[in-house]
């Protein structure tokens, strides 16, 4: 079958690979009908996540039709022909983390937990197509994929909903939603979101659903800021404005009550010398992540506010403003999304029309053109916001 | 690290050790009784200093003979190696300052001592058994009550499912079992073990019976975790790692880190307890063999051949 594979830093190629097979009794095989390229796939492409192997199948946002079910799954849970969306973190549903609904911290699904523990202190869940640090699971930018522990890792979808309406339940919609939920939004709250990519857009939509008074989008890509203003959010262009001053002006000098970092480890900075400093440290591997958005969010947030981090960080950062964080009673909340917890409630929001996930899709390509999709998305060319691939 | 320095029956009946003991005695007696005659026989100058040296060497040889024949320990063999080196140094000095009379005999003596040195080194190296006592602990928390976890753990024949190095466990009696495990460098070790304490839902301890390839013992303690968090498991293993420090370093070089192994074993036990089986990925399809699979198979589906290999 065809699959989009990582073949080295900055290269993704569509290659012929074997079709997946059942490896565990609770596996299922899904024929993929839609899959997408995620912003975090770019971190893999750019070589910032260690433990990639040449030939790794990419992709952790996918959905499709069940074509085979392992012997360990009863028919009332899942059967051939079911249409499912697959959450990106693989959860077991039984360990301490899963019982606490911290699915992306599952204690049982990462065969390379010993390695992950060295990086993170404690192991994290397996993730499809996301390096060997998260288990070495084949991803879903392919014609078929194996779903692990499929009785707890596949959400069944009614036939009358389109793929594009529900595909993003696999990752970016719940991720954006969790970013807003962690903000514990109160009446009158102003929420500022760093990054107006797809996850940032969904964080903004979710903040509005959760009752935010005003939502502010911070980015430098005009077309991305335009997408936000079209939804009624306020735009701040960090290349033309000083972000902290702009935010003070928009909030009567208080600063945003809640701040969401939807950027992560490969941020850019309006002041080129600051960006160059971090870029150089990153190139020399003396820091792995460039935390401009996080620094700015901490410095901008009002005292006692919440900084919610959903942009991905992988390793170490430099110049973390601990003084601002501590002395101004800020709360820092974060996590890879616990997707399984949010899929059903968000499906409800989609069905009721409160959130329209399709609004972020700008490019639809066949799987065979995955490399082009990566190119467009990475370079923000052709006003690319979100690429959906169909096998 | 400790060297095995006990006088063992093994060495007492070792023909090589006894032979070297008697050789020491046969050399030592004439050296002490007639040092001048012995020195002459070797073509050495008959000086009072030479006589004194020869007598001292004789005393050393008799001491080694006594040690090797009555209280054999590897230390006596190493003592002989040290003595041999002193003798070779002395003979080299004698050859350099030789006046020519009886030179052939001195050369022959040097050749003989060289051969004896080789024999002594061989005996000392092969008769010294070095080992490192290891104590490993690992701990995890598993969903379920202590009695449930106890039942799963005491299903001993399932232990090889999650313990990477264990090939087979056979129950041989009410308290006895036979274990087979793979050791570094493709070796297999076997032992019989007996359960020494068994408190259902709380504690199991065991130790290997006499004659084990590697002496070992261990215990598993179970305790309810606070606040309905399941059961805390604490495993301790004690064994003598063969090969001493060198063996340990070599094993580590080949990816055998004992603490990490026990951690991973326990992690897999947790997987079986909580999900029913060991989770496999395309990168680590071998289940309990995952650790040995680095660099891993790419995270892409397996070919039929790879699949067969991984699942057997």
- The termini of chain B sit apart by 38 Å
Residue runs with pLDDT of under 50 for 5 or more positions of chain A: none
Q: Bin the strand percentage of chain A.
A: 15-25%
Mean pLDDT of chain B: 85
Report the radius of gyration of chain B as a whole number of Å. 29 Å
CATH-defined topology of the largest domain in chain B: Alpha-D-Glucose-1,6-Bisphosphate, Chain A, domain 4
Order of helices and strands of chain B: EHHHHHHEHHEEEEEEHHH
**Helical segment count of chain B:** 11
CATH hierarchy class name of the largest domain in chain B: Alpha Beta
Biggest contact: A-B, 44 and 38 residues
Number of domains of chain A: 2
Largest sheet of chain B: 8 strands, antiparallel
| Shape designation of chain B | elongated
The geometry of chain A reads as: globular
Description:
The complex is a heterodimer of chains A (391) and B (312). Helix content of chain A is 29%, strand content 21%. Chain A contains 13 helices and 18 strands. In chain A, strand 17, helix 13 and strand 18 form a beta-alpha-beta unit. The termini of chain A are close together. An 8-stranded antiparallel β-sheet of chain B has the order 1-2-8-7-6-5-4-3. In chain B, helix 3 crosses helix 4, helix 4 runs antiparallel to helix 5 and helix 5 packs antiparallel against helix 6. The longest helix of chain B has 25 residues. The two termini of chain B are 38 Å apart. The chains are: A alpha/beta (391), B alpha+beta (312). Chains A and B meet through strand 4 of A and helix 10 and helix 11 of B.
